[in-house]
Amino acid sequence: MTFAEHILDFYFTLSKEPSLPKGVEVIYPFDNPQTREMMKTFFNKYYNDTNPRTYLVGINPGRLGSGVTGVGFSDAYHLEHVCGIANSFDKRIELSAAFMFEVMEAYGGVEKFYGDFFFTTTMPLGLLKEGKNYNYYDDKETQTSLAPYITQTLLQQISIPQAKPKIICVGTGKNLKYLEAFNKKHHCFESIEVVPHPRWIMQYRRKEKEKYIDHYIDTLNRHL
Q1: How many CA atoms lie within 13 A of 166 on its CB side?
Q2: What are the strands, taking DSSP E only, across 5-151?
Q3: pTM of the predicted structure, to 2 decimals
Protein backbone atom coordinates (compact mmCIF):
# COMPACT_ATOMS: atom_id res chain seq x y z
CA MET A 1 0.00 0.00 0.00
CA THR A 2 1.11 3.56 -0.67
CA PHE A 3 1.43 6.12 2.10
CA ALA A 4 -1.68 7.82 0.68
CA GLU A 5 -3.70 4.61 1.00
CA HIS A 6 -2.51 4.01 4.55
CA ILE A 7 -3.22 7.53 5.78
CA LEU A 8 -6.60 7.89 4.05
CA ASP A 9 -7.66 4.57 5.55
CA PHE A 10 -6.54 5.82 8.96
CA TYR A 11 -8.52 9.07 8.77
CA PHE A 12 -11.63 7.69 7.12
CA THR A 13 -12.03 4.92 9.71
CA LEU A 14 -11.41 7.11 12.78
CA SER A 15 -14.04 6.80 15.47
CA LYS A 16 -15.94 10.07 15.87
CA GLU A 17 -16.80 9.41 19.51
CA PRO A 18 -13.73 9.50 21.76
CA SER A 19 -14.52 9.75 25.46
CA LEU A 20 -14.84 13.43 26.39
CA PRO A 21 -15.97 15.33 29.49
CA LYS A 22 -19.12 17.44 29.37
CA GLY A 23 -18.69 20.70 27.49
CA VAL A 24 -15.91 19.50 25.16
CA GLU A 25 -16.93 18.63 21.60
CA VAL A 26 -15.10 16.91 18.77
CA ILE A 27 -14.46 18.29 15.27
CA TYR A 28 -15.03 15.45 12.80
CA PRO A 29 -14.61 16.68 9.20
CA PHE A 30 -14.46 13.29 7.48
CA ASP A 31 -18.23 13.00 6.97
CA ASN A 32 -18.11 16.05 4.69
CA PRO A 33 -17.95 14.84 1.05
CA GLN A 34 -15.87 17.84 -0.06
CA THR A 35 -13.34 17.29 2.73
CA ARG A 36 -13.00 13.65 1.72
CA GLU A 37 -12.47 14.56 -1.93
CA MET A 38 -9.91 17.23 -1.03
CA MET A 39 -8.02 14.73 1.12
CA LYS A 40 -8.05 12.10 -1.61
CA THR A 41 -6.78 14.64 -4.14
CA PHE A 42 -4.11 15.96 -1.78
CA PHE A 43 -2.74 12.64 -0.55
CA ASN A 44 -2.81 11.01 -3.98
CA LYS A 45 -0.95 14.04 -5.35
CA TYR A 46 1.83 14.16 -2.77
CA TYR A 47 1.93 10.75 -1.04
CA ASN A 48 1.15 8.24 -3.77
CA ASP A 49 4.32 6.24 -3.13
CA THR A 50 5.99 4.08 -0.50
CA ASN A 51 8.84 6.44 0.43
CA PRO A 52 9.57 6.99 4.15
CA ARG A 53 8.52 10.25 5.83
CA THR A 54 9.44 12.01 9.06
CA TYR A 55 6.36 12.99 11.06
CA LEU A 56 5.91 16.50 12.43
CA VAL A 57 3.48 15.96 15.29
CA GLY A 58 1.28 18.88 16.31
CA ILE A 59 -1.38 19.12 19.04
CA ASN A 60 -4.82 18.63 17.46
CA PRO A 61 -6.59 20.09 14.40
CA GLY A 62 -8.07 23.58 14.58
CA ARG A 63 -11.58 24.54 13.51
CA LEU A 64 -10.40 26.89 10.71
CA GLY A 65 -7.53 24.77 9.41
CA SER A 66 -7.19 21.00 9.22
CA GLY A 67 -10.45 20.67 11.15
CA VAL A 68 -12.00 21.73 7.82
CA THR A 69 -9.54 20.43 5.21
CA GLY A 70 -8.46 17.17 6.85
CA VAL A 71 -4.85 18.01 5.91
CA GLY A 72 -2.42 18.86 8.71
CA PHE A 73 -1.34 22.50 9.10
CA SER A 74 -3.30 23.58 6.04
CA ASP A 75 -6.27 25.80 5.27
CA ALA A 76 -8.58 26.09 2.28
CA TYR A 77 -6.72 29.13 0.93
CA HIS A 78 -3.29 27.51 0.76
CA LEU A 79 -4.61 24.20 -0.54
CA GLU A 80 -6.22 26.03 -3.46
CA HIS A 81 -3.61 28.72 -4.18
CA VAL A 82 -0.41 26.78 -3.46
CA CYS A 83 -1.37 23.12 -3.94
CA GLY A 84 -3.85 23.71 -6.77
CA ILE A 85 -6.72 21.90 -5.01
CA ALA A 86 -9.89 23.86 -5.73
CA ASN A 87 -12.54 23.99 -3.02
CA SER A 88 -15.56 26.04 -1.95
CA PHE A 89 -14.58 26.39 1.72
CA ASP A 90 -14.04 29.80 3.35
CA LYS A 91 -10.60 31.01 2.17
CA ARG A 92 -9.74 32.62 5.49
CA ILE A 93 -5.99 32.29 6.13
CA GLU A 94 -5.15 30.33 9.27
CA LEU A 95 -2.01 31.56 11.09
CA SER A 96 -0.32 28.21 11.65
CA ALA A 97 -0.94 27.19 8.04
CA ALA A 98 0.46 30.49 6.76
CA PHE A 99 3.70 29.97 8.68
CA MET A 100 4.05 26.34 7.66
CA PHE A 101 3.58 27.16 3.98
CA GLU A 102 6.37 29.74 4.29
CA VAL A 103 8.55 27.03 5.81
CA MET A 104 7.68 24.71 2.93
CA GLU A 105 8.54 27.39 0.39
CA ALA A 106 11.90 27.98 2.11
CA TYR A 107 12.52 24.23 2.11
CA GLY A 108 12.15 24.05 -1.66
CA GLY A 109 8.39 23.95 -2.23
CA VAL A 110 5.46 21.77 -1.26
CA GLU A 111 6.36 18.81 -3.47
CA LYS A 112 9.85 18.55 -1.98
CA PHE A 113 8.55 19.03 1.55
CA TYR A 114 5.71 16.52 1.34
CA GLY A 115 8.11 14.08 -0.28
CA ASP A 116 10.13 14.05 2.95
CA PHE A 117 7.66 14.93 5.72
CA PHE A 118 4.12 14.42 6.96
CA PHE A 119 2.10 16.67 9.28
CA THR A 120 0.04 14.88 11.89
CA THR A 121 -1.15 15.50 15.46
CA THR A 122 -1.05 13.79 18.83
CA MET A 123 -4.86 13.90 18.99
CA PRO A 124 -6.13 13.33 15.42
CA LEU A 125 -9.48 15.07 15.87
CA GLY A 126 -10.03 18.73 16.69
CA LEU A 127 -11.73 19.84 19.88
CA LEU A 128 -14.06 22.71 20.76
CA LYS A 129 -15.14 24.22 24.06
CA GLU A 130 -17.67 27.05 24.04
CA GLY A 131 -17.20 27.25 20.28
CA LYS A 132 -13.45 27.88 20.47
CA ASN A 133 -10.45 25.69 19.69
CA TYR A 134 -9.45 23.51 22.61
CA ASN A 135 -6.32 21.42 23.14
CA TYR A 136 -6.30 17.83 24.35
CA TYR A 137 -4.13 18.85 27.34
CA ASP A 138 -6.03 22.02 28.34
CA ASP A 139 -7.49 20.34 31.40
CA LYS A 140 -6.59 17.16 33.23
CA GLU A 141 -10.01 15.54 32.82
CA THR A 142 -9.96 15.95 29.03
CA GLN A 143 -6.41 14.64 28.75
CA THR A 144 -7.20 11.62 30.93
CA SER A 145 -10.44 10.88 29.07
CA LEU A 146 -8.66 10.99 25.70
CA ALA A 147 -5.64 8.91 26.75
CA PRO A 148 -6.97 5.55 25.40
CA TYR A 149 -8.03 7.15 22.10
CA ILE A 150 -4.70 8.95 21.67
CA THR A 151 -2.79 5.78 22.50
CA GLN A 152 -4.68 3.73 19.92
CA THR A 153 -4.53 6.30 17.13
CA LEU A 154 -0.97 7.49 17.68
CA LEU A 155 0.41 3.95 17.73
CA GLN A 156 -1.67 3.21 14.62
CA GLN A 157 -0.12 6.16 12.78
CA ILE A 158 3.41 5.25 13.83
CA SER A 159 2.87 1.67 12.65
CA ILE A 160 2.38 2.82 9.04
CA PRO A 161 5.36 1.27 7.18
CA GLN A 162 6.51 4.61 5.73
CA ALA A 163 6.78 6.30 9.15
CA LYS A 164 10.36 7.06 10.16
CA PRO A 165 11.13 6.30 13.83
CA LYS A 166 12.48 9.79 14.62
CA ILE A 167 9.80 12.48 14.96
CA ILE A 168 9.63 16.27 15.29
CA CYS A 169 7.25 17.61 17.93
CA VAL A 170 5.51 20.87 16.98
CA GLY A 171 5.22 22.78 20.24
CA THR A 172 7.82 23.13 22.98
CA GLY A 173 5.48 22.91 25.97
CA LYS A 174 2.78 20.45 26.95
CA ASN A 175 2.68 18.60 23.63
CA LEU A 176 6.39 17.77 23.95
CA LYS A 177 5.96 16.71 27.58
CA TYR A 178 3.06 14.43 26.61
CA LEU A 179 4.94 12.81 23.72
CA GLU A 180 8.02 12.24 25.86
CA ALA A 181 5.93 10.53 28.55
CA PHE A 182 4.11 8.55 25.86
CA ASN A 183 7.43 7.36 24.45
CA LYS A 184 8.71 6.32 27.87
CA LYS A 185 5.69 4.06 28.15
CA HIS A 186 5.42 2.72 24.59
CA HIS A 187 9.00 3.03 23.23
CA CYS A 188 7.71 3.92 19.76
CA PHE A 189 10.08 6.77 18.77
CA GLU A 190 13.86 6.59 18.43
CA SER A 191 14.06 10.29 19.22
CA ILE A 192 11.87 13.39 19.57
CA GLU A 193 13.19 16.72 18.33
CA VAL A 194 11.13 19.87 18.85
CA VAL A 195 10.28 23.12 17.05
CA PRO A 196 8.20 26.04 18.39
CA HIS A 197 4.52 26.01 17.50
CA PRO A 198 3.73 28.24 14.48
CA ARG A 199 0.78 29.91 16.19
CA TRP A 200 3.04 31.04 19.05
CA ILE A 201 5.54 32.37 16.53
CA MET A 202 2.88 34.24 14.54
CA GLN A 203 1.20 35.70 17.64
CA TYR A 204 4.21 36.58 19.77
CA ARG A 205 7.38 36.52 17.62
CA ARG A 206 6.20 37.60 14.19
CA LYS A 207 8.96 40.21 13.84
CA GLU A 208 11.47 37.37 14.23
CA LYS A 209 9.63 35.06 11.83
CA GLU A 210 12.57 34.61 9.47
CA LYS A 211 14.75 33.43 12.34
CA TYR A 212 12.19 30.76 13.21
CA ILE A 213 11.82 29.70 9.57
CA ASP A 214 15.59 29.19 9.49
CA HIS A 215 15.35 27.15 12.69
CA TYR A 216 12.67 24.95 11.11
CA ILE A 217 14.80 24.44 7.99
CA ASP A 218 17.84 23.47 10.06
CA THR A 219 15.73 20.96 11.98
CA LEU A 220 14.16 19.50 8.84
CA ASN A 221 17.54 19.08 7.18
CA ARG A 222 18.77 17.01 10.11
CA HIS A 223 16.03 14.47 9.36
CA LEU A 224 16.92 13.78 5.74
Answers
A1: 10
A2: 24-27, 54-58, 117-121, 126-129, 132-134
A3: 0.96
